[in-house]
Task: structure prediction
Amino acid sequence: MSYIAILITYIFINNFIFTQFLGLCPFIGVSKNSESAIGMGIAVTFVMGLASLITYLVYHFLLVPLQLQYLQTLSFILVIAALVQFVEMIIQKNSPALYQALGIFLPLITTNCAVLGIAIINITQGYNLMESFVAGIAGGLGFTLAIILMSNLREKLDLSPVRKAFKGVPIAFVSGGLMALAFMAFDKALLTNLLG
Amino acid sequence: MSILYAFLVISALGLLLGLGLAFAAKKFAVKKDVVAEQILEVLPGANCGGCGFPGCSGYAAALSAKTAPNGLCPPGGAAVAAKVAAILGIEESGTSEKMVAFVHCRGNHELSSLDYQYDGIEDCNAAALLFKGDNTCKYGCLHLGSCIRVCPTSAISRDEKGNVTVNPELCIGCKKCTLVCPTKVIRMIPARGSHAIACNSNDPGAKVRKICKVGCIGCMICEKKFPESGCKVVNYLSEIDYGKPMTQIAEAAQACPTKCIVEAK
Result:
């Protein structure tokens, strides 16, 4: 599978938020304004790319030789948790404002199922090292796209007359659902049409 | 044998990652400002922005760096300023007296006339874009409650007639309402002030009489008959100089033909 096909697959066709419904917690929690949404998107993209690389190495050079494949979930969670801690330190050092804006959602990337999701998908799809990395980055970009679209929508929603019962999170979920419907337009046929 | 491998692999992985994180924590350690953290603890933590800094942590950092004067915190007042001075080891200075917001208008849809019926979104600044609001009096309160929504302590309320009032007990003096108000009818007065002028109109008396039953008509009775009241009429509007003794203010309030001088509490 070519890298471009992987990119298109995980940004549009198998978008983590809109098609696979993974990582919805930060998608709703950090999409109130576009600035922190972009920050969260970049942080998740970074973590997903790095996690793909390291989990690939851990799986193929540690678990497979020892025939411990059944430990993949446990060891992946360990690796991801450590990675997120590391990213948190870097962000706190280099961008205190972003650190404040992301708040509790930064440690929550640890439990973001999109990150564990891409690590396991990479294994089940049988990607090689480079393909895993591209899939991780693409998954993160898909997440970033979704959260930026959502934050812009919610900034507009804040100014629109919304019924009181729907104000805030409820209308956000409804809008997210409608966007997910729109993303159903991207399917495998897109790939064959584009790349033949 | 395989269970031993599993145990060893996970332990080794955990140990390796743990050591890596410990190393990274040293390498990327953020130096914390101990003084700023101490100051942050004594500040009220309302994050109201009344000091002019982005939240209490911003002011604490500025105080610690000695780039901001002490005593800028309106909710904390003198008590907090004293604690901050103790932490910084400086003399207490520049503590201003407590100010509270006051809505200088008593007009409502029964007492004052309207130019048109406003049906737009409930926001004073949106209404002010249309001919400066629906009131005929362009100085008064628009009753749409933008100040109520920005108030961090819910000190501002609106009764069924639309009159907006500030509870001086709850007001922390952050001035957010004065910034959001398009007609600037809500302004700060000293919390000790017993009376305030409940009108903001610079229109001449004859016009005020026509459009509002409770507006200041600039008759100057308060200024001329009660010189010790502290009242002074400027631009057809009486103003209280809170720096003056204000001994006759109660009598002036009695004599005011439109009862525009009201008790502030």
In short: The mean pLDDT of chain A is 87.
